[in-house]
């Protein structure tokens, strides 16, 4: 037996017990003729003492110990002279009377401590050492706990977890599908699922009624900072439901997680329409941790001598509280910020509503104090506030105002990671027009149902059709999204028409699903949560990478195992493929 | 709201309530002017009644109903005149006062009933309809329940479920790896894991201490009747353990599952050495539901005039109780059975130990009654028993005797699916000699540790080295297997030497794992259970296909979605590959 206790277990009540511990050497300190060793495992740290009177063999062994050696010790628990109240085992220590080195360690390439000297790259290469740091391991423990809580919560509500296949079918529209050549069916390929969408809908057709799965999904896309080629979803679907039923169940799940994991009571979630979210926050994932809503000044700011405003489709503002004292330099920084390529505003207009009630703006030559006062009133500004204004086409300017608002939230420290403000965004448009390809695309996916009252608009003004679609948004992050699906073949055909699919294309891609709908499909709907993102938010982290045991880098590489890599000529031959790369 | 209750919920205490149900039409029966409809969902079946006095609209609607239509009804619960005690809702029925057709159905290609008229092929093509049959759905409900029980059991023991990557590295030995071309790293490939073996060992190096994962694994091999290209494992690993620790934990898990799922108390598992299993049952996965152990007659049956026996390395027998009355035809059948190509015995010798104490055998001209009596005593045969004998090289004959024993077990009805006899098979050989390639292969995998006392044999007689490896076997099926791993780089190198790996080959394949071992690896070991097989055994099924929602056929095809399939020229171009098939 390698241990009687873990390194996080012993307390005052164990004093005088003979124990056996195993773990990693965190630190060795000599104090006169005594040696102290911090022994670490997943459960904690326990202090070992090798006394001057210890057998020579032990003293020789302890002298050889280095950081990260794996050792087993036997000894007696005693009360510590100087207690360490920072760790749960800090009242005791172990007088060592046997010490075995189970495994030596070279000097690790970085220190295995919460505050490490290792950079990102080296920590990724030696990820197995990075995972030893308790701050990293705790993220994965939290993730595990959230998965367990989710599974138990949904199982108790009669949801069944069903494993859907990983080797599925590549579809012509699946531009970002990973594909897998088949050896038994040479020349043909499987695809890895971007989501189990069609399978979960088939399960509803099968009468499974309530399905969920915590499941890996795959997307071969250019990786932005916080994407991974393989990611995990909490994927769910329900039958005989309307939108309200789905929202209620999954609001319950998220509230349960907040309560259990963070000890937070989340009030009933606000429902905000997509249009309100856009107009008030400039995006479909508003951060409600702070106000500073966008105000439409179009009506009040036009009609003077300022051509830029008069010619603009839309004039929008935010009011930054207590920022009227911003310096020239600070205002220049904000102007630079909104001009950045990702945001792309042409310029920024500011109005300082000074504490003394006067106004100072960058458009003073076009507007009187009385004009500016009207703006301030429209913005509900108080003396001391700073009004920031952007103009342009409405749906181009709103996202710019969104970015500006978030930046001001950051500057004012209003985006506390320990505050959580979830909401539902509802009534998304069904379709999105793409200028480049001159066609509509499904905003969620082609199975999303239109609101019944908007169905006639599919023929006359498809862009105006609202969907039975919803996103859950927390602190400006979309953590989940879903919809009530179409369950009627005729309506599904109409949808494919709107998307410009030929009958043949629709049949080739989704024939099996449309076929299934012909044998009695129940009304159904569902949702999928991004589990990596949800876990990273609960852990208070910025990146999903930190809640993934073995993540890939921005080029989709696992630098630890050096993958992807070349394959052998035999493998090419068996698969019936060869390379054909363009230089 | 689509329903107030499910179709399995209503009882006598609901009589007079107004309810709303939704579900599938299982059956429509007319009785005079009344119509009875069986309405089905996942939870049960409820009888609806449309009375003669019902509104004309309802009567018109009900007249149009066909099997598998999805309908919603409102009505009042009443007590049934003729109760049906076969279903839980059999005491009541619903007088329908509103009926909405939610979705029509074409006539399904087979009947959606436990006893269906659909053949395998049509049911696979319309798997979403096959899954409506409650006997099929129940298998997946059981699978879900087993997964939940497993996760909660292991979590309660401090195991953490960690998701390991699906896109990993192809290795030169990974002949059966599925590979995935990378778009961002053209010319390079990921591989899908055949198991998370190296990652779970890295997690032990990381100090995770107790890991598990219910995880999809992939193997591109020719599919025998009961294999799937993607399958699910309960994958586990523990640190600071010896073999006994691992066996105890996972015996606990399996006992827990038997208790909860099947209501069966499993006694402490027997441990049988690999050699005993081979000698007594002819294989490393003995079916202990019945005796009929193999008896070695080599010593007692040689030395007479029968050259076949005298020349044989090994003479083995089983004693089939109460089969002395077997007819010529039955004995011929058995002879044919053992001569089948998969078994490949040259012939079968029988000895009837008649009820009257006399003997009749196929070798009467070589052996006296006294000779045969000695055999019978060696076999512990009773009058009325039939002794069946095979001869040949020992380790070729034992598997033949195993097959014969199982066949006799089947014929005698000794392999009851509701009886479970699990055991541990231990002390497997570390290495297996392959005649064809003239080298040793790891019997489990190259990370399995040899028994410490056998390490010297690695240099002198590698084939004799026993491993710290173990399988859990239930009813003749290997449901799980694992080992204590090597955690020492030097011993791991020695192992690679035994396997004939060059240093470079070992480094290229497992360099990251061997590198990790240099930074303090704890002693560790683990196990993986075949979850599909375990679930199918608990469900009393013959095939793992029946516990998989969307299985593939023997050619690795999903005939429902028609996958694998061709991919587009754009996909080939982006991936930098092209076809090169040989005709």
TrEMBL record, chains A, B:
GO terms (BP aspect): aspartyl-tRNA aminoacylation
InterPro entries listed in its UniProt record: Aa-tRNA-synt_II (IPR004364), aa-tRNA-synth_II (IPR006195), aa-tRNA-synth_II/BPL/LPL (IPR045864), Asp-tRNA-ligase_1 (IPR004524), Asp-tRNA-ligase_1_N (IPR047089), Asp/Asn-tRNA-synth_IIb (IPR002312), AspRS_core (IPR047090), GAD-like_sf (IPR004115)
Keywords: Aminoacyl-tRNA synthetase, ATP-binding, Cytoplasm, Ligase, Nucleotide-binding, Protein biosynthesis
Pfam families reported for this sequence: GAD, tRNA-synt_2, tRNA_anti-codon
Subcellular locations according to the entry: Cytoplasm
Signal sequence residues: none
NCBIfam families tied to this protein: aspS_bact, PRK00476.1
PANTHER family named in the record: ASPARTATE--TRNA LIGASE, MITOCHONDRIAL (PTHR22594:SF5), ASPARTYL/LYSYL-TRNA SYNTHETASE (PTHR22594)
Protein name (record): Aspartate--tRNA ligase
Organism (species): Butyricimonas faecihominis
């Amino acid at each position: 037996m390698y241990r009687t206790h873990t390194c996080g277990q012993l307390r005052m009540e164990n004093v005088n017990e003979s124990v056996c511990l195993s773990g990693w050497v965190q630190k060795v300190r000599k104090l006169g003729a005594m040696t102290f060793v911090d022994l670490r495992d997943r459960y904690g740290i326990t202090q070992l003492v090798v006394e001057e009177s210890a057998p020579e063999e032990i003293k020789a062994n302890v002298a050889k110990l280095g950081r990260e050696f794996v050792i087993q010790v036997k000894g007696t628990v005693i009360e510590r002279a100087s207690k360490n109240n920072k760790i749960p085992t800090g009242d005791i220590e172990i007088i060592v009377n046997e010490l075995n080195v189970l495994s030596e360690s070279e000097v690790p390439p970085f220190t295995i401590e919460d505050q490490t000297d290792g950079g990102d790259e080296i920590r990724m290469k030696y990820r197995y050492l990075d995972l030893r740091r308790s701050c990293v391991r705790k993220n994965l423990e939290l993730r595990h706990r959230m998965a367990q809580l989710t599974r138990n919560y949904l199982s108790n509500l009669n949801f069944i977890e069903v494993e859907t296949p990983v080797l599925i079918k590549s579809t012509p529209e699946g531009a970002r599908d990973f594909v897998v050549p088949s050896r038994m069916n040479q020349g043909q390929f499987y695809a890895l699922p971007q989501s189990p969408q069609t399978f979960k809908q088939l399960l509803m057709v099968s009468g499974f009624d309530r399905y969920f799965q915590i499941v890996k999904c795959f997307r071969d896309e250019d990786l932005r900072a916080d994407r991974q080629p393989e990611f995990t979803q909490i994927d769910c679907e329900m039958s005989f439901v309307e939108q309200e039923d789905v929202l209620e169940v999954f609001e319950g799940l998220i509230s349960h997680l907040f309560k259990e994991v963070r000890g937070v009571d989340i009030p009933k979630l606000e429902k905000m329409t997509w249009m309100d979210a856009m107009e008030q926050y400039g995006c479909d994932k508003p951060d409600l941790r702070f106000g500073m809503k966008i105000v439409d000044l179009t009506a009040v700011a036009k009609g003077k001598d300022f051509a830029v405003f008069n010619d603009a489709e839309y004039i929008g503002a935010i009011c930054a509280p207590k920022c009227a004292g911003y310096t020239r330099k600070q205002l220049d920084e904000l102007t630079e910020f909104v001009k950045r390529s990702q945001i792309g505003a042409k310029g920024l207009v500011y109005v300082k509503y000074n504490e003394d009630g006067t106004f100072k703006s960058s458009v003073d030559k076009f507007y009187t104090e009385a004009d500016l006062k009207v703006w301030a009133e429209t913005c509900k500004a108080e003396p001391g506030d700073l009004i920031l204004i952007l103009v342009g086409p409405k749906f181009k300017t709103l996202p710019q105002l969104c970015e500006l608002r978030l930046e001001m939230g950051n500057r004012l420290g209003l985006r506390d990671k320990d505050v959580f403000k979830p909401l539902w965004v509802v009534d998304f448009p069904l379709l999105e027009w793409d200028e480049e390809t001159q066609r509509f695309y499904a905003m969620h996916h082609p199975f999303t149902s239109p609101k019944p009252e908007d169905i006639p608009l599919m023929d006359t003004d498809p862009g105006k059709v609202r969907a039975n679609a919803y996103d859950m948004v927390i602190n400006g992050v979309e953590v989940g999204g879903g919809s009530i699906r179409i369950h009627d073949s005729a309506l599904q055909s109409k949808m494919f028409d709107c998307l410009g699919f030929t009958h043949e294309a629709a049949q080739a891609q989704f024939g099996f699903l449309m076929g299934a709908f012909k044998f009695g499909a129940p009304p159904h709907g569902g949702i999928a949560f991004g589990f990596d993102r949800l876990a990273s938010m609960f852990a208070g982290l910025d990146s999903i990478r930190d809640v993934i045991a073995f993540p890939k880098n921005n080029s989709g590489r696992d630098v630890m195992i050096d993958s992807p890599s070349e394959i052998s000529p035999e493998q090419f031959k068996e698969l019936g493929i060869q390379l054909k790369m363009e230089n």
